[in-house]
Specification:
42% helix, five-stranded mixed beta sheet, 3 domains, alpha/beta, activator, transcription
Length: 304
């Protein structure tokens, strides 16, 4: 008999394309996930995906079950949201601040979905360039902060959304393009283009350059991601941004991207919420919507 767990497993397989990563996503060992799939295939008397295919490819039967999974799981999520509304009520406020300026390109679709499902919730948001959003969160001025820089603040809880690799963007013809990855010293004679925020809040400094004692030749700022990429493409400097942000431009061959160090740097993006607010139905729903949207749509991100 088909169960919800089977449908979730198939969705995880589709989104990750890997038995290993799918097992991590549904909190199973790889052997337990393989056993679950074999048991399901035995009951259905057919194979659901092509073994040893790279990337993983589903059979026609598997594709049919994926359609069912999309429909059923969406209905389950909707029912759970309705129950939360009945329990917690529909009125409330969700004022957000974003320390990660690159997050606008996934936050807006999430807000659109959320607004349709919770129309009575008052929504507002702002960038975190001109004020300190985490202290404002603790003081009740705002209700949620998107950040990759968690700080120990009493009464604030950090909910992980996903992890991402910090990529360094360089011009296609840049001398550093011959390298498979970059070391901190490679940036010592380069102009680094960043958002206009403190260095302590930028991954490229706090996790890459500063620990190595390296200072870039110059730092140039821009509030606009597209402007940063255009400056990089024209050879005016390098930038360090999340992999999902630079993937679009790299796929179009406008710039090249390299990892920071041989193993790369993988920060985690969090939603910071006040402790007494985190279990509220509409807050939980927003967090779930954000996670689901990003894991499905952002290239290169991973579930924490």
């Amino acid at each position: 008999m088909l169960e919800i767990r089977h449908l979730k497993t198939l969705i995880a397989l589709r989104e990750t394309g890997s038995l290993v990563e799918a097992a991590e996503r549904v909190f199973l060992t790889q052997s337990a996930l393989s056993h679950q799939l074999k048991e399901l295939e035995s009951k259905l008397e057919c194979e659901l995906f092509i073994r040893k295919s790279r990337p993983l490819r589903f059979s026609e039967a598997g594709k049919r079950l994926l359609l069912l999974a999309d429909d059923v799981l969406a209905r389950v999520d909707e029912a759970e949201r309705d129950i939360k509304k009945l329990i917690h009520g529909e009125a409330g406020r969700l004022f957000m601040a974003i320390e990660c300026h690159s997050c606008f390109n996934w936050l807006m679709p999430t807000i659109d979905i959320f607004r349709n499902q919770w129309p009575a919730i008052e929504l507002d948001f702002s960038g975190g360039f001109t004020f300190e959003p985490l202290p404002a969160l603790a003081q009740g001025e705002i209700d949620l902060v998107i950040t990759s820089d968690p700080q120990a603040i009493k009464g604030v809880e950090y909910v992980p959304l996903f992890s991402y690799e910090m990529h360094i963007g360089i011009a296609n013809q840049h001398p550093l393009a011959v390298k498979t990855f970059l070391q901190p010293q490679d940036l010592a004679d380069q102009t680094l283009i960043t958002y206009p925020v403190e260095r302590s809040r930028l991954d490229v400094f706090k996790q890459f350059l500063t620990p190595a004692g390296v200072e870039p030749l110059a730092v140039r700022t821009s509030e606009l991601t597209l402007m940063m990429v255009q400056l990089v493409a024209s050879g005016r400097g390098l930038c360090a941004l999340p992999n999902w942000v630079l993937a679009e431009y790299a796929d179009k061959q406008l710039i090249s991207v390299r990892s920071a160090g041989e193993k790369g740097i993988w920060p985690t993006l969090y939603a910071a919420v006040r402790e007494e607010h985190v279990s509220t139905g509409y807050v939980q729903d927003f967090l779930n919507l954000a996670k689901a949207h990003c894991l499905k749509n952002l290239q290169g991100v991973k579930q924490v």
